[in-house]
Amino acid sequence: MTTTLITGANKGLGFETARRLVGAGHTVYVASRDAGRGRRAAERLGARAVPLDVTDDASVAAAARAVEAGGGLDVLVNNAGIQVEMVDGQEVAGAAELTAEMMRRTFETNVFGMVRVLHAFLPLLRRSGAPVVVNVSSGLASLSRMSDPGSPGHPYPGVAYPASKTAVNMITVQYAKAFPRMRINAVEPGFTRTDLNGNSGRQTVERGAEIIVRMAQVGPDGPTGGYFDAEGPLAW
Description:
alpha/beta; Rossmann fold; eight-stranded mixed beta sheet; 42% helix
């Protein structure tokens, strides 16, 4: 039995990923900052709930202890994320409006939170026979795409969110090199309708979750240190 933990799994892409992996036979931990919402989501899915706030050391450590007591971990999906530069769920603050506080808050969840979770759960993953990590990134993280005037993401004016996801990509590469037995990849779900963007995305969570679910199920001979969307590898 494969055991999987998904951060930010009480709604959106995390919830849909959990639903699909439960259906694929995984034992899934729905990790959520709000314990009540996480518990209700887990009950709907037939999953296990674990409170986990990626910005809090004690919360993450407690979650790791709970998962260890439950038998260990094979797959970690780092899905929790925020987009501080969104205004009223629609407008995006550009470079002229960017503050250090916006950058700090975005990185606290999207980057430092992910590293905090990785650090806490690495001992469990290293005991697994086929450990997998999926880091949910974004197409806005691609330097080559964002510098190409012909790319759909090029007009996006925000700084903090793309920069945080570019950091996620570099962390993915470096962790994959450090732990060659693990399959560690970054994924771009696409512009999906979720609370993160005020439900302004162009595709459903079902479509967005496809690449997350696929990469959560890669075998020991699968890719590692890569950056993928539903169509295949992406340019950094």
